[in-house]
Write a structure and sequence with these properties.
The chain has 5 helices and 2 strands; from the N terminus they run H-H-E-E-H-H-H. It has 202 residues and is mainly alpha-helical. A hairpin with a 6-residue loop joins strand 1 and strand 2.
Length: 202
């Protein structure tokens, strides 16, 4: 009987020793990155939607002197008069959709004790891609807005913001919010990369 009891203890002790490190590894979580990730992606969604709405509502009609005549005619300034502003709205709309998808994915992953490596890698790559998209759209819209604000005497491009002040305020506000969205994407990309690095190292 003694010889048969001894192997039983030898079998059960390694099982307990294996389960203990697994429990310790699952409990090892120095910081919950999922909360910050979800918060930043919700902010990204809010910034993208705000930027698109402000740009899409940028419309103003003013009376402008008709060339060669003494009377004035109503002329409207709209965002769809510039391809740069159209590209801006398209880019920020896609970014808003991306933020919704990644927020839902991040929420689903937050219910698990650790991030999935594949999702973290996808987040890091896609966030960098959308940084480029938002930055290019912001730069293109900003260049057109600067010409509207200052003009260009070398090519006889007149400034229009002295006449369409409300329109220019909408454009400037929308570009500022889009710049904030680009900064959020940079932070998200850095955080995803760092979290993936910590996960691989641990």
């Amino acid at each position: 009987m003694a010889s048969t009891d001894k192997p039983e203890h030898e079998i059960t002790r390694p099982a307990a020793s294996v389960a203990k490190p697994e429990a310790a590894a699952a409990a090892k979580c120095p910081f919950n990155y999922s909360v910050v990730d979800v918060a930043l992606r919700v902010l990204l969604l809010a910034a993208s939607v705000t930027s698109v709405v402000v740009m899409a509502t940028s419309k103003q009609t003013e009376l402008v002197p008709a060339p060669g005549f003494t009377f004035r005619v109503p002329v409207s300034a709209k965002f769809n008069h510039s391809p740069a502003f159209i590209y801006f709205i398209a880019a920020l709309s896609v970014t808003g959709l991306y933020s919704i998808i990644t927020t839902l994915a991040s929420l689903s992953l937050s219910r698990k004790p650790t991030y999935s490596k594949s999702f973290l890698l996808a987040f890091a790559f896609l966030d960098v891609v959308f940084v480029g998209i938002v930055a290019s759209a912001t730069g293109a819209a900003g260049g057109v807005a600067y010409i509207g604000l200052k003009g260009n005497s070398n090519v006889n491009w007149n400034k229009i913001c002295n006449l369409y002040d409300k329109f220019c305020r909408h454009i400037g506000s929308s570009i500022a919010v889009a710049l904030f969205a680009a900064i959020l994407l940079v932070l998200l990309s850095m955080m995803s990369t760092f979290t993936l690095y910590k996960k691989i190292r641990d």
